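Dear colleagues,

As part of the handover before I leave the project, I'm documenting each prediction I ran so the next person doesn't have to rerun anything. This entry is a single chain, and its sequence is reproduced below.
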Amino acid sequence: MALPTSSQYPKAPKLLFDDGQIRGAFEEICRRLEKPLDVEYEHTSYRTAEGTLRHACQLSVSIPDVLDESARGEDHLKARAKQAAWLHVLAKLHVSGKLAELIPQSVAQVDQKQRTGVHDSQEREEQDEDEAKDDLEPTILDEQTIEEEKDAKRVGWLPRRQLPNYANPTL
């Protein structure tokens, strides 16, 4: 699953793109929406066939009347399993388009309260259209970056924000 980038969500809280601070970003979004954030964790542990101890975290995130999502994260450390679950929720919201609905909604409410210079509704619509055009800038990668990423994948290096491979999703 793909994770969102700051270029895709320029008005999102910066914490959203820090792997360990995703919950804080959701708390900030909920403050903007003036809605409560309901988070539930269920932790389990198990041993693999090789005898390695693994931790799993089932995470449920709910914002009343806005979203209800759950996901699972696994790792050999309990804290990293929790972090993986947050990354998984974030990726699911991004891929489904729910994150795009959530971020503009939260930003729009704050912007509406803070706007004082725009009085005419037609002028406000024109300003919104200009902002939307600015948000759609393509990302251009050079050949060297593409080759470095291909090389990194060949040797097994994982990028920092890539989700772990969930080998046993039935647990």
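DSSP finds five helices and three strands in the chain. The beta strands are 38-47, 53-63, 67-75.

All the best with the project,
I.
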